[in-house]
Amino acid sequence: MNNKAFFFLLLSLVLLPLYAFAVVSVGGWSPISDVKDPHVVEIGVFAVSEYDKQSKSGLKFVTVVSGESQVTAGTNYRLMVTVDGSIGVAGAGVSKKYEAIVWEKPWLKSMNLTSFKPTV
């Protein structure tokens, strides 16, 4: 095998894993380091409020426990939120955890709740 072919093969073997890692990383979820950040809390409050508007559940936001973000055509936020249980129903005042996914387009000042479900 001549030197050019060997060099090309070696270079390919070195760069291919780096390319594969970059492809997988784009659009992946990244942990949110500060869940007490006012913007993250605002998104959590929005998620619970929006879910309550749609379901009339009586859920009240307590805190964001953890979260991840994903850059798309905007930003998806997957937050684990703690809420107080339904008002006027057995179990009222009981804290529960939910996973909320909110899609935000900050340049349009737009947020959409795309998923809200109890955690197991």
UniProtKB/TrEMBL annotation:
<feature type="domain" description="Cystatin">
    <location>
        <begin position="24"/>
        <end position="119"/>
    </location>
</feature>
<keyword id="KW-0646">Protease inhibitor</keyword>
<feature type="signal peptide">
    <location>
        <begin position="1"/>
        <end position="22"/>
    </location>
</feature>
<keyword id="KW-0732">Signal</keyword>
<protein>
    <recommendedName>
        <fullName>Cystatin domain-containing protein</fullName>
    </recommendedName>
</protein>
<dbReference type="InterPro" id="IPR000010">
    <property type="entry name" value="Cystatin_dom"/>
</dbReference>
<dbReference type="GO" id="GO:0004869">
    <property type="term" value="F:cysteine-type endopeptidase inhibitor activity"/>
</dbReference>
<dbReference type="InterPro" id="IPR046350">
    <property type="entry name" value="Cystatin_sf"/>
</dbReference>
<keyword id="KW-0789">Thiol protease inhibitor</keyword>
<dbReference type="Pfam" id="PF16845">
    <property type="entry name" value="SQAPI"/>
</dbReference>
